[in-house]
Amino acid sequence: MGRGPMASDTDDFYTSGPYHLTSIDWTNSHHRTSVVSSLVNGVYTLERDRLLSIKKRYRYKLGLRHAPKSLAEPWWEFFNFELMYTLTDDDGSIYGAVFEYKSYSVYQNSPHVKVPHYVMAFRGTVLKKRTWEFDLKLDLQCIFNTLHQGGRSRHAVQAVRSMVDKHSQKDVWLAGHSLGAALVLLAGKTMTSVGFFLESYIFNPPISSIPLEQLPGGHYLKDVFQTAKSVVKGTIAMTLTHLLQGQEEYNTKTASWIPNLYVNPKDPICAGYIDYFRHRDFMSEIGAGQIERFGARNSVRSLLVGIIRRSPSDLSKEPLHLLLSADMTVNKNEPTKSTTAHALHQWWEKDTAMRENWESCCIRPYHDGQLTLEFYSVLILLIIQVAADGNVEFHHRLKLFVNLVLNFLLKFY
């Protein structure tokens, strides 16, 4: 979950960075995106420089005097930012950094303009000898929705809290790519729960779902699978909720946090966000918004574990991808060898013709509704179509199962 196979080509700002932005217009969303993504890339390059400095010391002992120069500073200095301090993990790796915008005071009399005073930036996975182990552990935690249990996660959230405690929430921006984007989601949700809504830029965030759309017949499989999954999980959640005494109520504050989300449909790591929002709208339109909400917030595993261990507050954390609001940008350009679908540098694209293929989506909370006959009909048709292979016995059993589920659901409405 890092920058991709061409990461080394993006370390030099004056080769691959947005050096064409000699004057920053903070009212321009593309300028904001380019600057904050550059700061994130600066964190990647800081870690690259750290690893090279270790090699440099080793080379010096061997009598070899030359080593690659540091490349990190231009990624923030070009935009008049200053590095305040870095965030390091237990293995010594740099996973984040805090930058201060030195021209912030110029905009003090322009409250209508979004300008950061501080930007907290987080990198993604770096598959190098000295960093891969810690990063891959966090990648697995993203997959299993347990990122909140990691030491780096706790350290990052505490750093964000400290910054917000010292400064106002409008002064602090968050930005991250891939694994770093997951940290931003975790920190943003945590701060939102206590009433702080931080400006956030989330590039290629991971999502723990199967990229069905990229499989043969993926569009059809996706609709069937997601609808069935929502119904099953929603049913179990509503059935077992009364057993989970003290379970945290759904936090409506989340709807007030509107992060900037950047995804690429060809990137299997983040493409699931497109499917999630599309499916959420579909379920809402057919009157099944409440089932979708229950299903999205809970996994069967977390519900059952919560009952067994009687510790719902610790084990039923909200999945990172569950966002009620977001301003999502979808890059529909075809990936190339130099710009992969997961690459961070796609988001400071200077070619306006390429940016015309970016789609902007305004995601806002859906309205809950009662289950409708249309929902029942759609669900039945989807499942019956799957069984339309001539197997009468299988077809019959599916219909019995659907009737059982729907009759069960009707008891809740």
From TrEMBL:
Record's keyword annotation contains Hydrolase: yes
Domain annotation Fungal lipase-type: ranges: 154-193
Record-linked InterPro entries: AB_hydrolase_fold, Fungal_lipase-type
Gene3D superfamilies reported in the protein's UniProt record: alpha/beta hydrolase
Entry keyword annotation includes rRNA processing: no
Keywords, comma-separated and alphabetical: Hydrolase
PANTHER family (alphabetical): ALPHA/BETA-HYDROLASES SUPERFAMILY PROTEIN, GB|AAD29063.1
Name recorded for this polypeptide: GDSL esterase/lipase At4g10955
Species this protein is from: Camelina sativa (False flax)
